[in-house]
Design goal:
The chain has about 180 residues and is α+β, with helices and mostly antiparallel strands. The protein has a domain of about 110 residues: Winged helix-like DNA-binding domain superfamily/Winged helix DNA-binding domain (Arc Repressor Mutant, subunit A, Orthogonal Bundle). Helices cover about 50% and strands about 15% of the residues. It has 7 helices and 5 strands, in the order E-E-H-H-H-E-H-H-E-E-H-H. It has a 3-stranded antiparallel beta sheet. It has a two-stranded antiparallel sheet with strand order 1-2. A hairpin with a 5-residue loop joins strand 1 and strand 2. The longest helix is centred in the last third of the chain and has 17 residues.
């Protein structure tokens, strides 16, 4: 599976991972330092950039297809859901297709569109990688349960502000609710 987002994990099963950067420094920390020198406070920039990198690390197109209802999605929808440029989707699907993990097929609802569909081999990769993801706590092993809860709460506020969903109204204590 060379060139894909899959690799063999220590347990012998297949893991889905983002390509490691393998840099001798933290690029986000360095960018934040440069930002601070040129523009001012960099805490928000560093946090947002960290979130974007975390998304790259934690998500792959193959897993997205495995979680879709039919195992197939239009390339446009993959890009929208992963919030990546169409070229990135095309390149990723090309690699996964070369490795036999997805196949392209015409979209029956749109004669011009193309679906990326997970193959039985792709499903096997996702199934085998689940145990590794759980063991690695989805790449979040460096955080304990309270920290993960705090992170979820902080990011939930961001998602609410962005209009992802409407939170249920909170009933004040003593309001009879």
């Amino acid at each position: 599976m060379s060139g894909s987002l899959a690799r063999t994990c220590r347990s012998g099963s297949v893991c889905l991972v983002a390509k490691p950067l393998d840099l001798p420094f933290d690029p986000i920390e360095r960018a934040a330092g440069i930002w601070a020198d040129r523009f001012g406070p960099a805490d928000a920039m560093a946090a947002v950039t960290s979130i974007m990198r975390a998304q790259q690390i934690l998500l792959t197109g193959l897993v997205l297809l495995a979680f879709s209802r039919t195992g197939a999605l239009p390339l446009r929808v993959i890009g929208e859901r992963l919030m990546v440029h169409p070229t990135s989707v095309t390149n990723t699907v090309d690699r996964l297709e070369r490795d036999g993990l997805v196949r392209r097929r015409p979209n029956p609802r749109d004669g011009r569109g193309t679906l990326a569909e997970i193959t039985p081999s792709g499903r096997d990769v996702v199934t085998r990688s689940t145990a590794d993801l759980m063991a690695a706590r989805f790449g979040m092993a460096g955080y304990d349960t309270p920290e993960l809860g705090e992170l979820f709460t902080l990011l939930r506020g961001l998602r609410i502000s962005a209009g992802d969903f409407r939170p249920e109204p909170v009933t004040p204590a003593g309001d009879g609710g």
